[in-house]
Amino acid sequence: QAWIGGIRAGSVTSCGNHVKASCRWIAFNAEAAGVLGIVPLECEDGGKRTVSQLCCHSDVVTDFDFSPFDQLLLATGSADEMVKVWRLPESGQDMPGSAGLTLGPGKGSVDMLQFHPTADGVLASGA
């Protein structure tokens, strides 16, 4: 029933997810390096959805994951060797300008990220 059009998705240089959803948001690799597109899952204003940009990293976002315990918590990893954790807004608010937590730089590109499905607060990354 609902359709999201006009999305300009990113390149296939991502190692992990290209699209991921929580109960409130859909995130996807955008055309610009280091940027994720963020779309609300629920339609507002008669079915129109606004695509926002989350400027995450200085290089390609290689993977991202939503926490299964907090659907507003998004972790991003990048070729810039950083992992960042973001708190997305409820709805109708601006995207955050900076991450709540930044880890790195490490010793290589962050290729994969995953929140643990049963242990709250545990995030694994692979380089």
From TrEMBL:
WD repeats lie at residues 54-88. SMART domains: DUF1899, WD40. Coiled coil: none annotated. Keywords: Actin-binding, Cytoplasm, Repeat, WD repeat. InterPro entries: Coronin, DUF1899, WD40/YVTN_repeat-like_dom_sf, WD40_repeat_dom_sf, WD40_rpt. It is found in: Cytoplasm. GO terms for cellular component: cytoplasm. It holds the Pfam family WD40. The keyword Nucleotide-binding does not apply. Residues 1-46 form the DUF1899 domain. One of its GO terms (molecular function) is actin binding. F-actin regulator involved in anterograde Golgi to endosome transport: upon ubiquitination via 'Lys-33'-linked ubiquitin chains by the BCR(KLHL20) E3 ubiquitin ligase complex, interacts with EPS15 and localizes to the trans-Golgi network, where it promotes actin polymerization, thereby facilitating post-Golgi trafficking. May play a role in the maintenance of the Golgi apparatus morphology. Belongs to the WD repeat coronin family. This is Coronin.
